[in-house]
């Protein structure tokens, strides 16, 4: 009765009889057609109970847990859990290679890692799981920076700066030559290889050439360290393998951008040539700024060890 005046104004009153209609269109009730509605059920009395108890929104019953406090929701934590497992596996493999020095002397560490990757891939296929696909964004944003950081952190600075000119010739000129030579050679093969390869254009071949032109001589450098090779030869190979990644990244993005153009003009080629230097020097500039910031902040962490890592 108290809520009667508060109801929306549509000529309704608190004690007004309800009118219901049958599926055939007639009013439900006595012969007169109008009567009070049947008593409301428990779910109608409580508006919060919009759906039957222990049922989902689709109307399917949810399985009742024997122990409500226990449960495994693997899909919720799958991605971070699997990433952590991969990192843990890599750390354990790295520790095992150094503990078993006799094995690493016979087989290079990079070859052992390839064998581990084949075993893990075979295990994924054996259990029927869909293998993960490595996307370019994941590689450039999450895998390549730690590789460059590791190489730069352990860089012998004096030998590197003394032979910087020779290293740049090998890294820049050599990588550019490899990319264009391999791309042009494969384009020529596509032209004379038959009708099945004629649709592959020059940019696609140059893009592939830029991917495989940068060689990472991990096994060679490991052998150099073990036999204590000449410092000049070691720093030339090490510096070239460090800087050719940057050249390859710039070439890859440049050819990828050209592949989206309907027609590549001379102006696009000239701008791409200048963008090569802009990206390279810009990357060095950003690296110097963040290096100075890191060096400045690390001066004041002697009593704040928690932020040192």
UniProtKB/TrEMBL annotation:
Domain Cation/H+ exchanger transmembrane: start-end pairs: 88-308
InterPro entries membership: Cation/H_exchanger_CPA1 (IPR018422), Cation/H_exchanger_TM (IPR006153), NaH_exchanger (IPR004709)
Gene3D superfamilies in the cross-refs: 6.10.140.1330
Regions that span the bilayer: 83-100, 106-126, 138-155, 167-190, 202-224, 269-296
Similarity comment text for this entry: Belongs to the monovalent cation:proton antiporter 1 (CPA1) transporter (TC 2.A.36) family.
An example Gene Ontology biological process: regulation of intracellular pH
GO cellular component: plasma membrane
Location (main, coarse): membrane
Membrane topology: Multi-pass membrane protein
Keywords: Antiport, Ion transport, Membrane, Sodium, Sodium transport, Transmembrane, Transmembrane helix, Transport
Organismal lineage: Eukaryota, Metazoa, Chordata, Craniata, Vertebrata
Record protein name field: Sodium/hydrogen exchanger
NCBIfam families with a match to the protein in the record: b_cpa1 (TIGR00840)
Keyword ATP-binding: no
Compartments where found: Membrane
Coiled-coil regions listed in the entry: none
Pfam families in alphabetical order: Na_H_Exchanger (PF00999)
One GO MF term: sodium:proton antiporter activity
Signal peptide positions (record): none
């Amino acid at each position: 009765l108290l809520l009667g005046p508060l109801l929306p104004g549509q000529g309704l009153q608190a004690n007004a009889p309800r009118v219901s209609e049958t599926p055939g269109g007639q009013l439900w009730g006595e012969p007169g057609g109008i009567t009070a509605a049947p008593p409301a059920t428990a779910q109608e009395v409580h508006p919060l109970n919009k759906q039957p108890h222990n049922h989902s929104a689709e109307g399917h019953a949810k399985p009742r847990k024997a122990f409500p406090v226990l449960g495994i929701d693997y899909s919720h934590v799958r991605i971070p859990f699997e990433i952590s497992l991969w990192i843990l596996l890599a750390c354990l493999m790295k520790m095992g290679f150094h503990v078993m020095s006799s094995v690493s002397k016979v087989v290079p560490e990079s070859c052992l890692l390839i064998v581990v990757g084949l075993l893990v891939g075979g295990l994924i296929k054996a259990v029927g799981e869909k293998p993960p696909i490595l996307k370019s964004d994941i590689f450039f944003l999450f895998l390549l920076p730690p590789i460059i950081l590791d190489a730069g952190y352990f860089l012998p600075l004096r030998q590197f700066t003394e032979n910087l000119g020779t290293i740049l010739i090998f890294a820049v000129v050599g990588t550019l030559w490899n990319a264009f030579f391999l791309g042009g050679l494969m384009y020529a093969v596509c032209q004379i290889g038959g009708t099945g390869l004629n649709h592959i254009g020059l940019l696609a071949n140059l893009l592939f050439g830029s991917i495989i032109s940068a060689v990472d001589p991990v096994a060679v450098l490991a052998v150099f360290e073990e036999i204590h090779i000449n410092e000049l030869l070691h720093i030339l190979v090490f510096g070239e393998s460090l800087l050719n990644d940057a050249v390859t990244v710039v070439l890859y993005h440049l050819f990828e951008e050209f592949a989206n153009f309907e027609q590549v003009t001379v102006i696009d080629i000239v701008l791409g040539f200048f963008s090569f230097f802009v990206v390279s020097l810009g990357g060095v500039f950003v690296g110097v700024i963040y290096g100075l910031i890191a060096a400045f902040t690390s001066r004041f962490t002697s009593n704040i060890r928690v932020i040192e890592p």
